[in-house]
Amino acid sequence: MSEEDRTPQGNSAYNQLMDELRAGRLNPGDRLRETELAERLGVSRTPVREAIRQLEADGVVAHIPRQGASIRTLDYAEVMELYEMRAVLEGTAARLAARAASDIEIEELQDMNQSLATLGNVPEAFTLNRQFHAALLDAAKNRFLTRSIHTLQKTLMILGPTTLTDPARAENAVEEHFGVLDAIKARDAALAEAAMRAHIEAAQRVRVRALRAQPSRDETYDGDLL
């Protein structure tokens, strides 16, 4: 089901559930009961059903026998594969941005990262970080790459809140952004790609440590796997 096929209420329910997933209010393994969701979101069950179908199409929701729809649980291999693909795709975005970004776009990215440096690890910073990566992707000027990254990002949301909730990670991420931007400003495509890959790999290491520290919900996150 595409956005065009959903009703306005279905789109609203979908966006609200995505926001809850991004904020960590919905977590892997959580069941999605239509009646409860309809009551919480203030809509009927029909738009909730539409939203769940779209989340299933996105790969975020799975149907578990005798349980119904639940947020997917990613195993260790999937988490590693997601970050590997993110490094490839966002590294490519940085490389293309070094060739295609206008001076105004680069200045905007610099301003955004300067603002990010003053915020620390607060919710406003998490939003600004997403906007920074989106602006860099826009500067790459490749619609097919944009689609691929957006698809990947939906699956990454299953992992919950950003790694920037870690204070040290928030500070390091800003410095890593500046490294990417220095390369883009110098029009050094290879260095921009390498810097962005290193940035994503640093986030991956923080994510893996966080997953290891989580209480095991089931055997997927058992200490033997992570």
Automatic annotation (TrEMBL):
<keyword id="KW-0805">Transcription regulation</keyword>
<dbReference type="InterPro" id="IPR000485">
    <property type="entry name" value="AsnC-type_HTH_dom"/>
</dbReference>
<dbReference type="InterPro" id="IPR036388">
    <property type="entry name" value="WH-like_DNA-bd_sf"/>
</dbReference>
<keyword id="KW-0238">DNA-binding</keyword>
<dbReference type="Pfam" id="PF00392">
    <property type="entry name" value="GntR"/>
</dbReference>
<keyword id="KW-0804">Transcription</keyword>
<protein>
    <submittedName>
        <fullName>GntR family transcriptional regulator</fullName>
    </submittedName>
</protein>
<dbReference type="Pfam" id="PF07729">
    <property type="entry name" value="FCD"/>
</dbReference>
<dbReference type="InterPro" id="IPR011711">
    <property type="entry name" value="GntR_C"/>
</dbReference>
<dbReference type="InterPro" id="IPR008920">
    <property type="entry name" value="TF_FadR/GntR_C"/>
</dbReference>
<dbReference type="InterPro" id="IPR036390">
    <property type="entry name" value="WH_DNA-bd_sf"/>
</dbReference>
<feature type="domain" description="HTH gntR-type">
    <location>
        <begin position="7"/>
        <end position="74"/>
    </location>
</feature>
<dbReference type="InterPro" id="IPR000524">
    <property type="entry name" value="Tscrpt_reg_HTH_GntR"/>
</dbReference>
